[in-house]
């Protein structure tokens, strides 16, 4: 690990190099990781960088895009007396669309008597199932590649017969591909997520420069790595030559983690998948391979989406989380931000998760909205 003083000096050096670049117009740089957005916001990088550089938070929050109907299914399971539902902590507070008289989140389902438990790793789900062999345990597994690989790992080891999985896992790169294939991508350069690249490999992001001519760099979470990646894509932009640069070389390799990739391929197929508020993105989700179908909680409990439910799959009324996730607007441009929607009483999923841009902006002190006079630049 780089000593703090060395990392600080390196960050100052990269910042000086960035400030010295002859930028003549606005350059929009998207980051595709909630961890990156947290580091950027907490370090105050937007205020330290030249005004010409616009840093855009992108689709880096799995909690934010988890289909609303999947959360509803988990709630219904939690309300069954014979089922224990476990999920990563952020998922417990994500609200769904539904009547106020009914539980609209897993936390509310717990308050209504459901047995809902937060976990930090798939192994905790296994431990709980073994501790309660007389009950069904459902692991609501929502996440991107980094949290899905450990799920594949416990599947390979063998699960207790009373443990099934409600799978809501997504791949990161297809959302970026969708944006680039749209009429207007909305960004001029990309900082790719180091944690995903550690699992899946940096080469997964080569399509950005090669197919679209857009500069790209993989970055870690420290300020010096982020600034190095930013300097790289800005240089590429100025020199009009796009390539993939790995600024997280000590951790992320070209082909990623071979064991993790093998486990993912053994347990799951890649399929078209729904992203909340966005719609279906081709080949963007994981589904159980046929030989593991018995682990699918949706199949075991014969779950289906209730056709009478309104707004299924959408964001709550007035919530702009989908446009925030896609980098179309900043968090403080949502009319609910900081007013009706706060971390204490979130309306949209982007204000719930520590990976959500709205929650990150709020936590970093960005409380002024774009609808107030003279909004600050965060």
Features:
alpha/beta, Rossmann fold, 16 helices, 37% helix, 17% strand, globular
Structural overview:
The chain is α/β, with parallel strands linked by helices and about 375 residues long. It has a domain at about 25-60 and about 175-245: 3-Layer(aba) Sandwich (Rossmann fold). It has helices spanning about 5-20, 35-40, 45-50, 60-65, 70-80, 105-110, 120-130, 145-155, 175-180, 195-200, 205-210, 225-240, 260-265, 295-300, 320-325, 355-365, and strands at about 25-30, 55, 85-90, 115-120, 135-145, 165-170, 190-195, 215-220, 245, 270-275, 280-290. The strands form three sheets. A five-stranded parallel sheet has the order 2-1-7-8-9. The two termini are about 30 Å apart. Mean pLDDT is about 95; it is low at about 375-378.
Low-confidence spans: 373-378
Counting copies of identical and different chains, the oligomeric state is: single chain
CATH architecture of the domain at 24-60 and 173-246: 3-Layer(aba) Sandwich
Which class of secondary structure composition applies to the elements? alpha/beta
The tally of helices reads 16
Brief summary of the model shown:
The protein is built from 16 helices and 11 strands. It has 378 residues and is of the alpha/beta class.
Layout of strands and helices, then pairs:
Layout: H1 4-19, E1 27-31, H2 34-42, H3 45-48, E2 53-57, H4 62-65, H5 68-78, E3 83-88, H6 106-111, E4 115-119, H7 122-131, E5 136-143, H8 145-157, E6 163-169, H9 173-181, E7 189-193, H10 194-200, H11 207-212, E8 216-219, H12 223-239, E9 244-246, H13 258-267, E10 268-275, E11 279-288, H14 297-300, H15 321-325, H16 357-363
Parallel strand pairs: 1-2, 1-7, 3-4, 3-5, 5-6, 7-8, 8-9
Antiparallel strand pairs: 10-11
Helix pairs in contact: 1-12, 2-16, 8-13
